[in-house]
Amino acid sequence: MCRLDGTWDAEIALVVPSLLQLTDAGTFTVGELGAPGWTAFGFARRAGDAVPFSLGPETCPAEELTALMIMWVIGEVVAREGEQPRHVAVSHPAGWGPYRRGQLHGALRAVGVHDVTLVPEPLAAAENHAVRARVLPDASLAVFSLGSHAFSASVVRRAQNRTFELLNHVEGVDHHTGADFDDLLGALVRGRLGKDGRVSAVECEAAKRAFGQSVVVSGVEITRDEFVEEVRPSVDHLVGTFVRAVGPVQPDAVLLVGGACRMAVVGDALSAAVDCRVLAEAAPEHSVAKGLAVAARLVLLGPEAEPEPLDTSVLLHTREQSLRFPVGEVPAPDDDEFTAPPPRPPVDVSPLELPPRRVKRVASVLKPAGRRSSSRSRDDDEDGR
C-alpha cells in the first residue's frame, strides 16, 4: 500500500499464499493448503477461463475466486489501518485482452470492489522502479519475470507524460519456472538418497532461495556448482527467450521480478547476455505489488504530483536492493467492450457436463484462517501475487 500523505514509496502490508479452501459448511478459508480437491490455487491467472475450478461439490470460476481473495486482502488491511482504501490496483498478465479484464472487473464489482484499476504486470514493475530511479522520457526498461509457475519477458517505454507503455511482451509456455527448479533440486537430493528417499518440496524451495556455496536438504549436501550445472540449460532457455523478446531495443536496465529471480544464476546469466544494468530488489516477489500501490496513488494524484527521484542511479548488481517501477494512467473499463469473449477455433470434443451450484458464495463466506505476515515475514509464494 501507499499512503497519500506520506512517503512516495510503497510498503508491504500483508503477505498470504493465494490459496482458497472450500469447507463442508460452504465457506472459504484463506491461505492454507487443505484436502486434495477442496483447495484452489493458481486461479489469479485464469480469469475468463471457460473451465471453472472444481472444489468438492462446487464449481467456481477463476475470476470469482480471484475477486474473493482480493476482497479478503482488502478487508484485512482495512482492519489494520482503520479506513477504506481510496483506490485499488490489481495486476494481470500483459497478454490479457478486453474479455479477461472485463470478467475480472465484473467479479470485483460483484463482491463490492468498485474503485479499481487493472494494471499489466510489467507496467507495475516499471512504476516500482521509477520511484527510486529517474527514468527519462522515451527510455526503455526490460522486465524479466520468473515466479513459481509463470515466466514472461516484456519491454516498456517511458512516455512524455511520465507514464509507461508496453512495447513488447512474451509469455513463456515450455519454460521451467520456480516450481520446476524446486523439482530439479529435489531430484539431485533423491539421487543421493536412493529410490526410497523422501524430499520435502517446501524444504527444496527454501533451500533454493538461500543457496550459498552449498545447502543441505534432507541431510544431503548439494553444492552451488552442482545445482547450477543442473539448472543451466533451463536458465539459458529463459534468457534466450528474453533476449529475443527484447529484440533490437536497447533497454536502460533489466528489472528482475518474481521470487525465482532470487537465484543468483539467473542474474548472472542475464548480465552476461545483455549490455545494460540488471536490477533486482531484495524481495523481487513483492515488486509488482509495490508498483500496484504506486499506480493506485498515481490514478488519484496524477503523475505530475510525484516529484522526480533525487537519485539518478539504481542498483548495478542483481543481488543489491533498489528497484522501482511506474504505472501509467489506465482508462476506466468500458462495459460495452466486455460483452462477449473472443471467438475460439472449432473443436470436436464433447462439452464438459458441470454439476449445478449448490452453495452460494458471498462476502461473508471468507474466514480469516490463513497464515498472515507483516513486511518482515517471508512469503511462501514466490510470485507474491
From TrEMBL:
SUPFAM superfamilies documented for this protein: Actin-like ATPase domain
Annotated Gene3D superfamilies: 3.30.420.40, Actin, Chain A, domain 4
Annotated spans, Disordered: 325-385
Name of protein: Hsp70 protein
Originating organism: Lentzea jiangxiensis
